[in-house]
Amino acid sequence: MGFAPQWLALREPADRAARDTALLARAAHLAGPAPVIVDLGAGTGASVRALGGHLPDAARWRLVDNDAALLALAVANHPNAQACQLDLNHLSDLPLDGATLVSASALLDLLSERWLRAFVDILVRHQLPFYAVLSYDGVMHWQPELPDDAGITAAFNRDQCTDKGFGPALGAASGHIARTLFEQAGYYVMLAQTPWVLTQQDARLQAELLDGIAGAAARAGHGGAPAWNAARQRLVSQGRCTVGHLDVLAVPTGRVALLDGHGCGNG
Ligand SMILES: C[S@@+](CC[C@H](N)C(=O)[O-])C[C@H]1O[C@@H](n2cnc3c(N)ncnc32)[C@H](O)[C@@H]1O
Question: Does ligand 1 come within 6 angstroms of the Cβ of 51?
Answer without folding.
Answer: no
